[in-house]
Every structure is written in C-alpha cells, then in structure tokens.
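#onboarding

Welcome to the new folks! Below is a worked example of what a typical request in this channel looks like: someone posts a single protein sequence, and someone else replies with the predicted structure as tokens. Don't worry about understanding the tokens yet, we'll cover that in week two.

Example request:
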Amino acid sequence: MKLVVLLKQTFDTEAKIVLKDGKIDDSGVTLIINPYDEFAVEEALRIKEKLGQGEVVVVSAGSDRAQEALRQALAMGADRAVLVKTDGLQLDESVVAEVLAKVLQQMEYDLILAGWRAIDDSSAQVGVRVAEILGLPQINLVTKLEVEEGKITGHREIEGGTEVVEVPLPALVTAQRGLNEPRYPSMKGIMQAKKKELKVINAADLGLNATPKVEIKEIFLPKGKQAGKIFTDEPAVAVAKLVKALREEAKVI
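Example response:
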C-alpha cells in the first residue's frame, strides 16, 4: 500500500509570537511538526507495519526550513519525503491545496492522511480541499481507522456517540487527537533519516495559475490585559466601589 502524509511545520505551542515589520518573525523560534499531522504520520506507519509492506511518503509545502520537520518524520520511519518550496508565492489555504494536489497528481497513492487542522491558523481547510481537487472520498476527524482490501472505515466522534464511515480507496483521511500516540524517533531512525531521499520541488515550476482567495490586510497582537482590581475596604464600601468600577470602567452595567 502506498501511503502519503501531508505535513505542515508550525510554531511550537510554547513559542512567543513576535511581529517584525508587520509580519510574524520566526527567527529563533522552535518549529515542530503540526501535532495533528504527527498523528497522521504515526497512523501511516502503523498501517504499513500491520500490512507488512508498503511505502510512507511525507509531503510538505513551505520553505527550506520545513526540511527539519520532514527529516523528523523520516526518523519516525517514513520512507521518503518531498518538499515543495513555496518561496515567493502568495499563499492561502486554497493555493497550498492546489500546490499539494498538483504534486500528488504526479504520485501513486492508495491513501492520503493529514491532520484535520494546523495549530497555527486553525483553518482546517487544506486536507479537505486537496480531496475535493483530486476527486477523492474523504473521512474527517478520524479517531480510529481500519484498512481493508480496497476500502477504509473511519470512526469519528459526534455528539452523544460515534459515527462510522466506510469509503473505497483511494481516499483521504484527516486525523483527530485520540487516533494514536505518535512515537519518538529512535537514534537508529535519526541516523537512517540522513540517508533517506528528500526531494525538493519548486512550486513555481508546477505550472500553476492559482491566486489566493484570502488577502491578509494586517497582522497585530491582541492588546495586553489590564491587571485586576481588589477592593479591601469594608464590605459596604467595597461593594460601592465595585459597582462604580463595573459601571464607569468596565461598562458592563
């Protein structure tokens, strides 16, 4: 079975966001595999191990720095990786999906896996857009996945229960938390990753004519929160001051 995982490199969840010249500055920031994509990588590896055969390919669209995330996926056990460099392109989720779909059209696959959303923009669009472009059936927010001959069955949590969806292969699945517990790369895996193929493609060479549907006008940080007030007077006085503050400062009454 040929398995492809769509992977995005994102900021570490503990990273402090800093703006420079109106843009997010990633210098000195730790970047990681998007956690939901990590579930997708792990699931692809488990499917391959269960079947005893197959190939796991990880694909990412981004800058050269995304090679770090791809190498980590290779260290986890993926067989090879593809980086589509998007430097100089105007990007939104629709363009990224077009870029990835164009690359996938040149590959063989039985199953495509991706995280259901990225933790940086939380758009939850790229995976499903890729499926629509390629005309593939899709199961989203999967917490359990079963692979059989020519089909897959995905379990997804819904209010008050579980929904079970079966679709034929090839198909696309997006992973939700709870699908598995991603493994840590072993030292042997880290050493082997250095020798595995990591192919670099320039998105500009794909012949795309995609334009963003979303334009970012401005990026800004939220205003800092003001410190709270504590009134330590006698109860009657404290209540009067509190009511005044709620009326005149907070303007909630």
